[in-house]
Amino acid sequence: MNDSASRTELAALHQVLVESALVAWTAGNVSARVGDDRFLIKPSGVPYERLTPESMVLCDLDGHPVAAGLKPSSDVFAHAYVYRHRADVGGVVHTHSTYATAWAARDEAIPCVLTAMADEFGGEIPVGPFALIGGEDIGRAIVQTLEGHRSPAVLLRNHGVFTIGGSAREAVKAAVMCEDVARTVHLSRQLGEPLAIPQPDVDSLYDRYQNVYGQ
Amino acid sequence: MNDSASRTELAALHQVLVESALVAWTAGNVSARVGDDRFLIKPSGVPYERLTPESMVLCDLDGHPVAAGLKPSSDVFAHAYVYRHRADVGGVVHTHSTYATAWAARDEAIPCVLTAMADEFGGEIPVGPFALIGGEDIGRAIVQTLEGHRSPAVLLRNHGVFTIGGSAREAVKAAVMCEDVARTVHLSRQLGEPLAIPQPDVDSLYDRYQNVYGQ
Amino acid sequence: MNDSASRTELAALHQVLVESALVAWTAGNVSARVGDDRFLIKPSGVPYERLTPESMVLCDLDGHPVAAGLKPSSDVFAHAYVYRHRADVGGVVHTHSTYATAWAARDEAIPCVLTAMADEFGGEIPVGPFALIGGEDIGRAIVQTLEGHRSPAVLLRNHGVFTIGGSAREAVKAAVMCEDVARTVHLSRQLGEPLAIPQPDVDSLYDRYQNVYGQ
Amino acid sequence: MNDSASRTELAALHQVLVESALVAWTAGNVSARVGDDRFLIKPSGVPYERLTPESMVLCDLDGHPVAAGLKPSSDVFAHAYVYRHRADVGGVVHTHSTYATAWAARDEAIPCVLTAMADEFGGEIPVGPFALIGGEDIGRAIVQTLEGHRSPAVLLRNHGVFTIGGSAREAVKAAVMCEDVARTVHLSRQLGEPLAIPQPDVDSLYDRYQNVYGQ
Q1: A187 in contact with D at a CB cutoff of 8 Å?
Q2: What is the mean pLDDT of residues D165-190?
Q3: How far is the C-alpha of B119 from the C-alpha of B151, rounded, in Å?
Q4: Min distance B180 CA to chain C CA atoms (Å)
Q5: Whole-number percent of chain A with pLDDT over 90
Q6: 3-state SS class at C53
Q7: What's chain D's average pLDDT?
Q8: b vs e for C93-105, b when ≥16 Cβ sit within 10 Å of the residue's Cβ?
Q9: If pLDDT is split at 50, 70 and 90, which confidence band does A141 have?
Q10: Which intervals hold domain Class II aldolase/adducin N-terminal (chains A, B, C, D) (predicted)?
Q11: What residues does each domain of chain B span?
């Protein structure tokens, strides 16, 4: 995809966050890798309804804008860290979506009790440590926590959710599904204990969904 | 209804799932029997906003497409099983709607504590066993669990909801009402124990709703 | 208001129920008194998106249509009973709105712990007995339960909500506010016990809202 | 901003309350300071869909309209009190938003357990005393409770939320974010105890968000 198409798609994906009710006011952001050593990301503090393809900020893999213009999201260094350390990642999403963040505030992973979780996340959605914004701490927390998990989503304690994907659209899908299952499992646990899915069944569901589902 | 009208209605019914907030991303599907030995169903993994009448996949009652084109939903064999074993069924819906699935994750039936449940479901909404996707297990779980219940909706453990109806529209109605009562009973139980409706009153309400309600 | 204006307003008020998420599928209904001895009401089982001013059914105060055409709501006899016994009532609304019905399923009144409740309801929202649809039982339960309460809303056990007003629009307002406070008080009680408002303050708030608020 | 631009923006900000689902029926209001000794505020009891720039009521700092016309919101004296005692305030918002009001009904402050709370509120969202509408009591409760807190939002017991800002838009942002964090912390506490963020980290997050975030 060329730079212009990426900008258009990235602006559109930000609207998916709004339509899916994953973000409030200016919180949250999506980024998309462009070529090997650049990525586009939401500008800092700009309302979603004013985002345009042109307002997306092109950055290098250290998180610095490659041209003068709008400042990138203050989460830019977390995104940059992920792109530097995960060559397979083409898109990153960050939200404070309600139910997922409610789990994160208790420092709890979301257990795999739904076939939809086995399909998309291949097991639990893990939770990583508290980390302050602005440096490499959040990026490192994302990458280290996702090691050893199939999940493209990670909760960060007291903070929110980061998701990754082969493309920005896949990362947005993971953010949507993360909130969906976070909500369902939350509700289920309010009235008792949801039942775990045996690991061989989780494996079977994950394998099928990743390799057979879709066109 | 001819094939073209069925396709148009089936595409429209998928939008009802979206508008009723019963589905996330590409999850969920509706099918409609066409004649005695065919049914139309959603294609696998296609976003709801791109569904068209033409994209609906015509299958035989073994769940195989009758023409080259898009792959059917990966739930196609469950739908096919239902059509083969229930000649009265003209439509099937599958969702992971939030509150119903929260009950399913605990392997709990939804008790009949609302007149709206007595009207539409004639008693509890039962829960069936865990079953893996791809073969006949889910279809069999649906058909066997619904035996001996008036309910057109069944929860499947750790999974979600299937509903049936004389038409696809009736099955969609059952899916909408299932989530509605699942939510209300869930909330009611959060703060105490909802009161059961005596069986004779359930019978009376069900009889009236099925035979007197509507035009 | 003449008959034609009443029909137009009544159709529009049904859309307010939809927009306020108080109703699912064809459940719920609004009626409006026309003159002294007639009222208009929703037809039975017609989807909200197909309601037109012409489809509203004109009935006498025994609940019988005054002309051939669509059947009235199956709640028509409850509405009729209210109009016969409460000359001050110009509109009636019935819903199964989620949070209010969750209270009703436990047979619990909603305690007055919000200034917004004191304003609109002047105290608790009471709960009446279980009653079967189709005769005078529901109407009697509404009228008897509202005696001795300022509230224009009443919960019926295992069923839902009825609201009354000087006009259909006022009854719709009461239905919207009933669900709003039912939800807030429900949520508040999930994490502890909301504090009661002393009766003199309830009285003061109710008096001011009924007599000073608005233009 | 001249009077005409203020009216247009204030009418638009009321629609943000509706779109953000912070208000039901005619409840809630926004005001905006105009010059040093005037402010514009919502008229009393007018439905949100009928609000126009012209319908906003210009008042002096005692809360009295400066011209004949619509009556101001019955919360006008609370807004006036805030403008008289806080020269830094350019906008005030009042809502009964659901989750925040659920905390207020229990007389509980919302603890700072989310980075988004540290960013916007700099600590807990405090709760002030019960106060009757119509005089100076509510205004005094707002101003006194906010002393010694960084939070631009305050809960009032049994009532709802007031937020302040350098502009009306900033106060609306605080109202949106207040409900967002009230909901997330509420949900988190339903299933356990959310973890506090250490005060030095709260301070660091607040400082950064107030001084670095945005363009």
Answers
A1: no
A2: 98
A3: 10
A4: 7
A5: 93
A6: helix
A7: 96
A8: bbbbbbbbbbbbb
A9: very high
A10: 8-186
A11: 3-211
**CA dist., res. D108 & res. C192, Å (int):** 10
- What's the CA gap between D46 and A89, in Å, rounded? 51
CATH number of B3-211: 3.40.225.10
Query: CA C148 to CA C164: how far, in whole Å?
Result: 15
The model's pLDDT over A186-208, given as tens digits with 9 standing for 90+, comes to: 999 999 999 999 999 999 999 99
Q: Does C190 touch chain D (CB under 8 A)?
A: yes
CA dist B24 and A66 (Å) reads: 36
Residue B210 phi/psi, 5° resolution?
A: -75, -25
Amino acid identity, position B128: G
- In sign, the C-alpha dihedral spanning C114, C118, C120, C126 is positive
Using the predicted structure, report yes or no on whether residue D195 has a pLDDT greater than 70: yes
Q: Which chain B residues are within 8 Å of A213, Cβ to Cβ?
A: 44-45, 74
Helix A168-190 / helix B98-105 crossing angle, nearest 10 deg: 60
Please give the interface size between B and C, counted as residue pairs whose CB atoms are below 8 Å apart. Answer: 88
Measure CB to CB from residue A24 to each of D177, D194, D208 and give the nearest one. D177
Does the beta-carbon distance from D213 to A44 stay under 8 Å?
yes
- Cβ of B208 under 8 Å from any chain A Cβ? no
- What residues of C are in contact with residue B177 (Cβ under 8 Å)? 24-25
List pLDDT tens digits, range D197-212.
999 999 999 999 998 8
**Residues B147, B148, B152, B153, CA torsion sign:** negative
Distance from C-alpha of A21 to C-alpha of A171, rounded to nearest angstrom: 16
- Helices marked H in D71-114: 76-85, 98-105
Strand partners, C161: C95, C155
Q: Does the interface ipTM go beyond 0.85? A: yes
Helix (H, G, I), strand (E, B) or coil at C9: helix
Confidence of residue D97 (pLDDT cuts 50, 70, 90): very high
In this predicted structure, the answer to whether residue C215 has a pLDDT above a threshold of 90 is no
Q: What is the pLDDT of residue C1?
A: 55
- 3 state DSSP class of A194: coil
Report residue A201: phi and psi, to 5°: -70, -40
Q: Is C193 on the interface with B (CB under 8 A)?
A: no
